[in-house]
Batch of 4 targets.
Target 1
Amino acid sequence: MSVEKKKILTGAFALGIGTFTAKLLGAIYRVPLTRILGGTGIGLYQMVFPIYAVLLDFAGAGAPSALARLIASGDKTDREKRAYDYLTVSIRVFTVLGVFFSLFMFAFSKRIASWQGDENAYKAYMLLSPSVFLVCIISSFRGYFQGMMNMKPTAISQIVEQTVKLIFGLMFSYMFMSDKTNAAAGAVLGITLSEAVTALWLYAVYLRRRKKLSLLFTFDAENFFSRAGKLIATAFPVTLIGVMLPLSNVADSFIIVNVLKGYTSDATALFGLLSGVAMTIVGLPVAVCYGIATVAVPAVSGAGGEREKNANAVKTILLTLAFSVPCAVILFFFAPEIIGFLFRSLDDAEKSVAANLLKILSPAVVFLSLLQTENAVLIGKNRLYAPVLGMFAGILTKVALDLILVRNPIINIYGGAVAVIACYFVADLINLLPIFLKKRESGAVYESKPVENRQFGGS
């Protein structure tokens, strides 16, 4: 086995296990949380996340992939210095964005919740708002380690994040369980605390690494704007890729809840079963494949030529399919048992709806896992805007099907699940073509050449 293949497999395995463990903790967390909050409370809890995810993407969720690509490309002898410089730039740039969007989320919490159809979610928005800033710091450190092909800090930080959220989210929600609005807000407060702990932990790991390797670099302030421009230029299309799916989830939270309210009083609870129960379970196997996708960015961007880039791309895609297909089959055939085991607090009617949703959504394990790997490969190959087209087409399909299917009382919430499947499937098909098309390197924004030496110099 080649050294490069070992790096891909080792990195994907480490991050896959860490992400899966974190998602498993998240799923376990949902069991008592659902019992405490009930259908309406979990619906309020879920309503804040589409908007939150969009603000995260605008504020800097594209930082990890952008940093990983910039650090991994270019001369390997200067990688340590390049990583330090880009990390410093990233923290400064994305901190400003993070603070701005945190304040935006706090200031407009009531208005956003009202537009979504349930003003009771405004407290959750207010308590979650500091997380936008904190995640910007977390994303910068994760991108730094991923660019160095060290996936362990990211993997462990995800487990730290979920553990803190589980402990304090349950504690706060339990303290206010007599009021579902305050209980949902308390669960969200646990998330904000978990992001603060995770940011501090990653910073401590970084300081320990610098001390161990005696990395005494000084920041080259003269080239700050040049590097900031490169970072933003790389992060911007990655942000577009990342923000489009949360935007479609925002559309879901507006369309599905408001359309369902036209013929049922359980609109918020049904939305909670789709997004907070069925999609949570789908996210478990997808989380493992996220490790493969994350490794794909530096593995492809750091490859020596187009043939090696394509070879690494094929390896990551095949690894994704090898894991995701069996998981989708398991979810389809054992949906009632999985729902019954993980969400015992749901009543029989809710369990039945959730199991049917999970069966419909089971192919999403394959389509969503493949989509995140395809997006990572395209970013690694410097086709930064190629995934945007696929995502845009998929989202248009999803919104159209939401409006058509959910409006039908017979199809009901199941129309939302069908729309999710169609979204990922369309995006996957459109993404496949540019992955293996040849591209003239002269048109690339960044070229894998030793030009980085002239900017950073030896150290």
Note: The longest helix spans residues 3-61.
Target 2
Amino acid sequence: MKIFIDTAPFIYLVENHPVFAKKMKTLITDAIVNGEEIITNVVTISEYGVKPTRENRPDLIKKFEELLARLNVEVLIIDQSAARKAYELRAKYQFLKGMDAFQLALSINEKCHRFITNDKRLKKISEISIDTMDDL
């Protein structure tokens, strides 16, 4: 089974959020114990790097990249199939933004059984099981 992790949960883990970091550690530990794959995509990388770059914090970017490598996170790329699924999702869910649509499209195309985020609006998506940090 596969779990897709959106950008914010990785931020909470890397930056040691006082509440959510522990929840992410538990989620990841359980996933490893249960033999589940952890997946994200290039959108997560592009979103993650913005704040550390603005704040001149290459240490956070390095920590994030090391985390992905250590956990053997599969980083998907956006292809035509994902682009098609993204526009179908955006047509169906008018509130959906482009980057979120790519995240969801790739997770659906990869047949992930869970999508971990902290964007509560995404709970309206019916094509995949969405868990926010409050659900963990």
Note: Residues 99 and 116 are 15 Å apart (CA to CA).
Target 3
Amino acid sequence: MDIASLPLTPLISLIAGVVILIMPRLLNYIVALYLIIIGLLGLFPQLAG
């Protein structure tokens, strides 16, 4: 299995979930960063590729 063929969203979600379990205070920052990225991709779809 090639890592490049994995979908990005589930991989990010898995990593974020593990980090939140280890350090729950990071939840605010992770959610804020996720919302900012999703918002930017919604406003500027050409950034997504």
Note: Residues 7 and 13 are 11 Å apart (CA to CA).
Target 4
Amino acid sequence: MTTKPVRLNAGGHPNTGMTPSNMVEPGDFTTDDRTELISHHFTTDDQSILTGVWECAPCREEIDAYPVHEMMTVLDGSVTVTDADGRAETYEAGDTFFIPKGTPCTWEITRKMRKFYMIADV
């Protein structure tokens, strides 16, 4: 773990770039595009805090309980998050939002999305 400031690069980590990710189930993608990439920029030794960039093709997931606390800034694309009461919020490039751990929601990427993320799994 580093003890220096960490720059998040929208194109991925300067040394390792973007690598394939598999957080989305194959059946949850809504188009033929199955692109999903990730780049961790900072991770604590116990992996309770993660930061980086994630990109994903359009998909739709029903989430019973969001697995972590996560703050995100959309860099490109669009995602709509619908809460348990049916209230939908759409986030696009430049928008920053937070989902608390345990939140039931529907997560729908409507245009390939790239985001900065900061995850706290505590």
Note: The chain has one domain: 19-120.
